[in-house]
Amino acid sequence: MRDTLISRADVVTGAPERYAKQLVPHLGRRTEFTTDGATSTAAIAGGTGVIEVGDGVLTLVAEAPDAETLARVQDVLGRHLERFGQRNELAVVWMTAPTAD
């Protein structure tokens, strides 16, 4: 049995709270987010998406059972954040976490 695939993008910005406040309600029109403190989580495209506000960084985490689903979760989170942050040239670069054998 294969472990869940996980990838993460740490997007450096001076306004992580503002971008999270845009991203969560926008995506929340199609899926329900659960927010606990600085972390919001939702089922997205067959996987899970996490948006976490940090000090000068907005962290996106994508989790999925397979590579195709992981790519869809990454696309949904990354594409929307880049669109909201276009003026400030935000770029989402995903790093895939290693899986246990």
Would you give an account of this structure?
The protein is of the alpha+beta class and 101 residues long. The protein has a single domain (5-96), classed as Alpha-D-phosphohexomutase, C-terminal domain (TATA-Binding Protein, 2-Layer Sandwich). 30% of the residues lie in helices and 34% in strands. It has helices at 16-27, 67-84; strands spanning 5-12, 34-36, 39-44, 47-53, 57-64, 95-96. Strands 2-3-4-5-1-6 form a 6-stranded antiparallel sheet, covered by helices on one side. α1 (16-27) packs across α2. It is globular and about 35 Å long. It starts with a strand and ends in a 5-residue tail after the last strand. The mean pLDDT is 92.
In terms of topology, how is this protein built?
Layout: E1 5-12, H1 16-27, E2 34-36, E3 39-44, E4 47-53, E5 57-64, H2 67-84, E6 95-96
Antiparallel strand pairs: 1-5, 1-6, 2-3, 3-4, 4-5
Helix pairs in contact: 1-2
Question: In a nutshell, what does this entry contain?
Answer:
It comes from Blastococcus deserti. This is DUF2218 domain-containing protein. The protein is α+β, with helices and mostly antiparallel strands and 101 residues long.
